[in-house]
């Protein structure tokens, strides 16, 4: 206990630095995956993508990132079992951040598609099980999280499949796809706004101290949806259509309208990603800060301070600005087969899944969810060719990342334990 | 630390564009039949030789495109159309160009002369075969639209109609081929037997263009039915 009081500034400082390092890594690499489909379908220039990502990753982190942060902070390791050695949790969380951050750095250099979420969860489970004891880990919760890694791509795939089929029915396979697109796209924009707003209002905002009855949430979410649909309608009105564009590819003008929709979907995706993945960086920071602040007393019920959410958000934006733009450019230019109508179905499928997972406090991999969603559209015969080798690398990254994160975090844990005592 | 995103890796190049590029090249080659036979009818064998070389060059280019397409179509792809069928289609497309090269090669080498009695019919025959190839190209160019609609509904009926049209053109070509054969039959006694033999062969070869184009169409039809 005295250790915590004596080194409080140092410990919090380390947590902030490691947390920023991790958030920077997420911003530099992970965000690109979330924005890739938007840039790839040419709905956004990559500059626009960087701006949208910057604003809405931060918004997602602050407004809807609370639940997952809570899970990372105290859902995986049982804090009550620590008794009078709370400093173990502090060492462990620092070790996890460092382990996950370093593992991401190594993996990135090697070009392995590892998930930030898997790294940090592996790291926390690792130090919990070995450093504190097998009983200290909430295995049931870990089981639920692991399950969600399998189900989230599946669910996203199903939603994306359904969305794409609905576009086919309502817009593409009609006498006048252009007119139908003008008619229905605002409804889809409403749907995007409504879903994101609803989940945020229901689950996210209580962490910033706002709580409203369900019906009121419903009304506010609907209003946000309507406003967004209104803006979208105006943007569609301003589009210019030429018969010439349709000559080479009959659906060129229709896709322009979906391009507008895709902008909103990209916003939703950035928001969803911020709400889920920022927790990977700041969950451990929040844990360290709350223990050190309360001088060793592990407060069971405490909200994540907003400044920590902001820290994570800014870390991501910083990563994006210093490095992420390069990655977005590569990702975007690599995808040439994606038109906005497909990009929309896949991205909204993924964003919905991720934001619901954020609401329920499940840390999932945005990238893997998006892969599932793209496959869903592919199953509806909507994409020219998909490389199934990616599925294999995802499985491989699961198998490798969890133990790698765990082993590194165990090493760092014992190092910190030795260094501070 | 730029890492290749799994999202990027997922989007393998679709074979549709290369397939369209290939048939474009093939059709470019087929189109040369018109100036080629115009030159033959005019007995301008210098021009015939030039055009033969050009056709040969286009055929080689089509061949290269074919190989490239095959190389970039790994087994691990998930596509809205079966991989085998794509490979089958490109093989048939390529046969059209091969046929053109073969026919023009023989005509040039032997300096084959078309008797005046069948000259008009011959030109008509060449043109109808070219339009069969053009129709096949048009259908292949609908493939990206088919993917856009997810192989469903109206676009599918449009393509089915186009395939019907191709069948009609092929029938037309068949009929014209018959007419030339008959016309040639009635004058063959007055010609050199070996010349006649090669004339029949030339007619057969030109007619194969429409035949193979129709086969390409039939294979595209199979893509629709699933």
Fold blueprint:
The complex is a heterodimer of chains A (421) and B (226).
Chain A (H helix, E strand, L loop, with lengths): L1 H5 L1 H33 L5 H19 L1 H10 L11 H24 L5 H17 L6 H34 L4 H28 L9 H24 L7 H4 L3 H42 L12 H29 L5 H21 L5 H14 L6 E2 L1 H32 L1
Helix pairs in contact in A: 2-3, 2-5, 2-11, 2-12, 2-13, 3-11, 3-12, 4-11, 5-6, 5-11, 5-15, 6-15, 7-13, 7-14, 8-9, 8-11, 8-13, 9-11, 11-12, 11-13, 13-14
Chain B lengths: L5 H5 L5 H16 L1 H9 L3 H27 L5 E2 L4 H28 L5 H26 L1 H7 L4 H34 L5 H32 L2
Summarize the structure.
The complex is a heterodimer of chains A (421) and B (226). Chain A contains 15 helices and one strand, in the order H-H-H-H-H-H-H-H-H-H-H-H-H-H-E-H. By secondary structure, chain A is mainly α.
What Rg of chain B is obtained from the alpha carbons, in whole angstroms? 20 Å
Average pLDDT for all residues of chain B:
91
Question: How many domains is the backbone of chain B divided into?
Answer: 1
Q: According to CATH, what is the topology of chain B?
A: Methane Monooxygenase Hydroxylase, Chain G, domain 1
CATH C-level class of chain B is: Mainly Alpha
**Beta-strand proportion of chain B:** under 5%
Please give the count of helices of chain A.
Answer: 15
- Rg of chain A, rounded, reads 22 Å
- Helical fraction of chain B equals over 70%
* Low-confidence residue ranges of chain A: none
Largest sheet of chain B: none
Oligomer: heterodimer
For the structure shown, list the relevant keywords:
heterodimer; A: 421 residues; mainly alpha; 15 helices; 80% helix; elongated; B: 226 residues; Methane Monooxygenase Hydroxylase, Chain G, domain 1; 81% helix
Give a written overview of the molecule:
The complex is a heterodimer of chains A (421) and B (226). Chain A has 15 helices and 1 strand, in the order H-H-H-H-H-H-H-H-H-H-H-H-H-H-E-H. Chain A starts with a helix and ends with a helix. The relative contact order of chain A is 0.24. The model of chain A has no long low-confidence stretch (mean pLDDT 85). Helix content of chain B is 81%, strand content 1%. The longest helix of chain B is centred in the last third of the chain and has 34 residues. Chains A and B meet through helix 2, helix 5, helix 7, helix 12 and helix 14 of A and helix 1, strand 1 and helix 7 of B.
């Amino acid at each position: 206990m005295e250790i915590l009081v004596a080194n409080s500034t140092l410990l919090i400082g380390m947590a902030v630095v490691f947390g920023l390092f991790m958030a920077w890594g997420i911003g530099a690499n992970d965000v690109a995956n979330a924005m890739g489909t938007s840039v790839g379908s040419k709905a956004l220039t990559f500059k626009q993508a960087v701006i949208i990502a910057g604003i809405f990753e931060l918004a997602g982190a602050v407004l809807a990132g609370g639940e997952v942060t809570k899970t990372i902070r105290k859902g995986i390791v049982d804090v009550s079992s620590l008794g009078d050695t709370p400093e173990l949790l502090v060492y462990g969380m620092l070790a996890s951040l460092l382990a996950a951050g370093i593992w991401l750095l190594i993996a990135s250099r090697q070009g392995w598609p590892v998930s930030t979420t898997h790294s940090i969860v592996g790291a926390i489970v690792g130090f919990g099980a070995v450093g504190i004891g097998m009983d200290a880990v909430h295995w049931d919760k870990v089981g639920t999280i692991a399950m969600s890694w399998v189900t989230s791509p599946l669910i996203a795939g199903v939603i994306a499949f359904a969305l794409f089929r609905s576009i086919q029915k309502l817009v593409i396979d009609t006498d006048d796809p252009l007119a139908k697109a003008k008619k229905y796209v605002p409804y889809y924009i409403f749907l995007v706004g409504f879903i994101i707003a609803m989940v945020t209002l229901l689950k996210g905002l209580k962490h910033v101290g706002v709580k409203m009855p369900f019906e009121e949430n419903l009304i506010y979410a609907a209003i946000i949806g309507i406003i967004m649909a209104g803006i979208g309608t105006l943007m569609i009105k301003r589009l210019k259509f030429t018969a010439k564009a349709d000559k080479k590819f009959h659906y060129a003008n229709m896709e322009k309208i979906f391009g507008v929709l895709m902008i909103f979907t990209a916003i939703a995706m950035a928001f969803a990603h911020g709400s889920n993945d920022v927790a990977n960086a700041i969950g451990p920071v929040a844990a360290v800060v709350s223990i050190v602040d309360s001088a060793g007393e592990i407060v069971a019920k405490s909200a994540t301070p907003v400044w920590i959410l902001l820290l994570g958000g800014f870390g991501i934006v910083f990563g994006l600005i210093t490095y992420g733009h390069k990655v977005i450019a590569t990702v975007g230019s690599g995808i040439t087969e994606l038109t906005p109508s497909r990009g929309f179905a896949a991205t909204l499928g993924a964003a919905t899944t991720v934001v619901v997972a954020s609401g329920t406090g499940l840390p999932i991999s945005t990238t893997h969810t998006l892969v599932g969603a793209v496959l869903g559209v592919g199953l509806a015969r909507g994409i020219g060719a998909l490389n199934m080798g990616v599925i294999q690398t995802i499985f491989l990254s699961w198998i490798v990342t969890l133990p790698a994160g765990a082993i590194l975090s165990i090493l760092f844990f014992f190092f910190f334990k030795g260094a501070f005592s | 630390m730029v890492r290749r995103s799994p999202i990027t890796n997922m989007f393998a190049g679709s074979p549709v564009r290369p397939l369209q590029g290939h048939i474009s090249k093939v059709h470019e080659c087929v189109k040369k039949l018109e100036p080629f036979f115009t030159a033959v009818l005019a007995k301008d064998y210098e021009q015939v030789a030039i055009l033969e070389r050009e056709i040969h060059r286009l055929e080689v280019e089509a061949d290269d495109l074919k190989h490239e397409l095959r190389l970039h179509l790994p087994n691990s792809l998930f596509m809205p159309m079966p991989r085998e069928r794509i490979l089958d289609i490109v093989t048939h497309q390529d046969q059209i160009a091969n046929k053109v090269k073969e026919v023009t090669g023989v005509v040039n080498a032997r300096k084959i002369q078309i008797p005046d009695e069948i000259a008009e019919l011959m030109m008509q025959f060449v043109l109808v075969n070219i339009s069969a190839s053009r129709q096949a190209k048009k259908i292949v160019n609908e493939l990206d639209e088919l993917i856009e609609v997810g192989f469903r509904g109206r676009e599918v009926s449009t393509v089915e109609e186009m395939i019907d049209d191709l069948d009609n053109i092929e029938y037309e070509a068949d009929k014209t081929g018959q007419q030339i054969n008959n016309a040639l039959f009635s004058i063959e006694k007055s010609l050199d037997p070996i010349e006649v033999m090669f004339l029949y062969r030339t007619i057969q070869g030109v007619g194969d263009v429409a035949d193979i184009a129709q086969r390409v169409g039939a294979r595209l039809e199979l893509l629709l039915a699933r």
